[in-house]
Design a protein that fits this description.
about 350 residues; FAD/NAD(P)-binding domain; 7-stranded mixed beta sheet; alpha/beta; binds flavin-adenine dinucleotide; 2 domains
């Protein structure tokens, strides 16, 4: 049965830290959670907004970057094998005969007995440049994220941006791709100074082409990216060269419009009012993480982990009734596998 045909026990909207831990706790309680994420990757704000920023306040981890934290959470949740649907931005929610229908912008509808809303600051989408041909060539050589490094092997790659992602991908791809060109529209960078200096040094050594202040003028190709024309936004001088891949690293922006349509009780800041055990005003809908507020709430990951555990317990009680499900004890998949082997 497909993910859209099935009535799930629990669907979690959003794939940030709160969602990942909620899914983990749902899994440890014997459920098969489904995560719907607007982007094509998990991790929420740490992965999308501050992948390189150090994080010092997650229990048990003295220091890590946002991306490292996201990677650890993803690794942890994958142990319980959740169902994950990417590029699914939930737009509408309808309650039909006791089942929640979650209608996504992709036109897909998913059904569930319970929903955990973990939408954080809102559905992230990539910031577009508004460059000519950007929409036309999206998915045909033009992308906003790197899904698989192998896709760029032996290619002429154009990277666009002045943030950490642009710098990191430049360094990562330079040895794999045939040639990497990085363009940035101004001589100022959001990226860490160390990363900028490294990329500048690569440019000076001739290992990459680094063009400032350049923007895209034209993308050409028969059904896929084949050639790009860039221009100096001060002198208007143009350069054209062959490329098979364009990666735009301009960041991500959140939109919270959908949340307002779902009938959830919101406070004056537009955050979901939650009651004990993450309950909202709607039956079977629980809310956690940055999307919520209550007295004493702090918008910190450590707090969201606690809410994640509470919501999983609440969902279990809602679906199975008191005393069933729940995450009282869990051996962990590795230990379970070991036991199965030695049994
Ligand atoms: C710059 C910065 C630095 C920070 N540093 C720290 C720190 O050091 N320590 C700390 O504890 N906290 C920090 N925070 C706060 C922390 O990142 C957030 O509290 C946390 O990410 C919230 O997690 P979340 O899962 O609730 O939401 P998010 O991380 O916002 O994730 C929500 C996810 O839901 C998706 N989504 C939203 N709407 C929909 C929809 N309709 N359909 C499908 N998907 C949807 C989004 O695309 C996103 O991936 C920082 C925040 C920022 C901005």
């Amino acid at each position: 049965m497909s993910n859209t045909d099935k009535i799930h026990d629990v669907i979690i909207i959003g794939g940030g830290p709160a969602s990942l831990m909620a899914a983990f706790y749902c899994g440890t309680g014997g459920m098969k959670p489904m995560i719907l994420e607007a982007l094509d990757f998990l991790g929420g704000q740490p992965a999308a907004l501050y992948p390189e920023k150090p994080v010092y306040d997650v229990p048990g981890i003295i220091e890590c970057t946002g991306q490292e934290l996201a990677n650890k959470l993803i690794e942890q949740v994958m142990q319980i094998e959740p169902l994950v649907e990417y590029n699914q931005s939930v737009d509408e929610m309808k309650h039909v005969d006791g089942v929640w229908h979650l209608c996504c912008k992709s036109k897909k509808t998913f059904k569930s007995k319970t929903v955990i809303v973990a939408t954080g600051k809102g559905a992230f989408s990539p910031i577009k440049l508004g460059a000519p041909g950007e929409d036309e060539y999206l998915g045909k050589g033009l992308s906003y994220t790197v899904k698989s490094l192998a896709d760029f092997k032996g290619q002429d790659v154009l990277l666009v941006g002045g943030g950490d992602s642009a710098m990191d991908w430049t360094c990562t791809l330079k040895d794999l791709a045939k040639r990497v060109t990085l363009i940035h529209r101004r001589d100022g960078f959001k990226a860490h100074i160390g990363a900028v200096n490294l990329v500048k040094a690569l440019g000076q050594a001739g290992e990459i082409d680094f063009l400032i202040p350049y923007e895209i003028r034209k993308i050409e190709g028969a059904g896929k990216v084949e050639k790009v024309t860039v221009f100096n936004n001060q002198t208007n001088e143009e350069k054209s060269f062959p490329v098979q891949s364009i990666i735009i690293c301009a960041g991500f922006k959140p939109t919270v419009d959908a949340l307002k349509k779902w009938g959830l009780e919101l406070n004056e800041k537009g955050l979901i009012k939650t009651h004990e055990i993450c309950k909202t005003n709607l039956p079977g809908i629980f809310a956690i993480g940055d999307a919520t507020e209550y007295v004493g709430k702090r918008h910190l990951i450590v707090m969201e982990f606690g809410e994640a555990a509470s919501s999983a317990g609440a969902v279990s009680t809602y679906v199975y009734g008191k005393g069933k499900g729940g995450a009282e004890w869990w051996a962990g998949p590795k230990k379970k596998d070991k036991e199965a082997v030695t049994a």
